[in-house]
From TrEMBL:
It comes from Stenotrophomonas indicatrix. It is an enzyme of class 5 (isomerase). The keyword RNA-binding applies. InterPro entries: PsdUridine_synth_cat_dom_sf, RsuA_PseudoU_synthase, S4_RNA-bd, S4_RNA-bd_sf. Pfam families: S4. Transmembrane segments: none annotated. Residues 4-69 form the RNA-binding S4 domain. It catalyses: uridine(35) in tRNA(Tyr) = pseudouridine(35) in tRNA(Tyr); uridine(2604) in 23S rRNA = pseudouridine(2604) in 23S rRNA. Its EC number is 5.4.99.21. This is Dual-specificity RNA pseudouridine synthase RluF. Keywords: RNA-binding.
Length: 232
């Protein structure tokens, strides 16, 4: 016999509508001869062993959003390609099951200049993309700016100058060479300009947080899913 589409075969096996069978498959709940298959149109032979996981749900698979620790030196148009199965962080505590469909149709929601590193958001979800594109400038962000040794004396006047040049965010020293900035309307490029104008030499800029979502201990080049309970 000619091979049959997997969704059609599953529909017949379980006695369910094709749409329901398709949702099981797209949700990553169906295996063929021991291999998880997420494509409803996959042709299968009559002899193929088709198994549906016990915990299977026919709920429509959600569009995924990921938090990536962008490495310095990587341009914006190369960031989505860093989202791969092997670069997912072991620290990902979300209850999201990785699916192959999560790696398709990704778009960058919050970029950084190529020279800078830190938190960026990559997503398939139009709502997440639209929210960040519209509201990023009005959302509090946190950055760490590393500066070279030397420069002007580091007293209260320097902090006032930094705050003025950066447009009024909270500014504090985290260490001898690291400045923390937190506030709305911040950009990596703007902070480089502000810190340089205050007489300090910028070594690196890292974004630590967007709204209530933080980079945390995510390693450079790795990503995790945006949890269902996390909001920017």
């Amino acid at each position: 016999m000619e091979p049959t589409r997997l969704d059609k075969r599953l529909s017949a096996l379980l006695g369910i509508p094709r749409g329901e069978a398709r949702r099981y498959i797209e949700g990553g709940w169906v295996s063929v001869d021991g291999e998880v298959v997420e494509q409803p149109q996959r042709p299968v032979d009559e002899s193929a062993s088709i198994v549906v996981a016990e915990q299977a749900s026919d709920s429509k698979a959600e569009r995924a959003s990921m938090l990536l620790h962008k490495p310095a030196g990587v341009p914006a148009d190369a960031l989505c390609a860093l989202i791969r199965t092997e670069t997912r962080s072991e620290l990902d505590a979300s209850d999201i099951r990785p699916l192959q469909r999560h790696f398709h149709g990704l778009q960058l929601a919050s970029s950084l200049p190529a020279d800078d590193n830190g938190l960026v958001v990559v997503s398939q979800d139009p709502a997440v993309l639209a929210h960040l594109q519209r509201n990023l400038g009005r959302t509090e962000q946190e950055y760490l700016v590393e500066v070279a040794e030397g420069g002007p004396e580091r007293g209260p006047w320097l902090m006032a100058r930094l705050q003025h040049e950066a447009g009024g965010p909270k500014v504090s020293w985290q260490s001898e060479q690291r400045l923390r900035f937190a506030g709305k309307g911040l950009t990596a490029k703007g902070l480089r300009t502000a810190v340089t104008a205050a007489g300090l030499q910028v070594v690196a800029v890292r974004r630590l947080r967007i709204g209530r979502v933080a980079l945390g201990p995510l390693a450079v080049g790795q990503w995790r899913y945006l949890g269902s309970d996390e909001r920017f």
